[in-house]
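input
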Amino acid sequence: MLFMGIATYDIDKRDEIVKRRLAKGRMTPKGMKVLGEWSTFGGGRMFILTEVSDPQVAFESTWPWSDLLKFEIIPVIDTEQIMKSMQPKKRK
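output
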């Protein structure tokens, strides 16, 4: 399953976030693959696309950062998959 994580933070916590990230890395749990990560230019928000086999892992990934970041975890699907599923079914 794919999940888009949106992390927001107060700018006054930026230095602590950077310090922890440099010291400990992402702290990605076992069973999660990070497909991409983006930050806004002005700071305050990050977007992380991940792939997991168990949705619980997506939730667990927020724990090491929950004192500094607020998370919204959204299940997503590739648009092409949706388009294929919307095609009319052929009758036999």
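quick obs: Residues 14-24 form the longest helix (11 residues).
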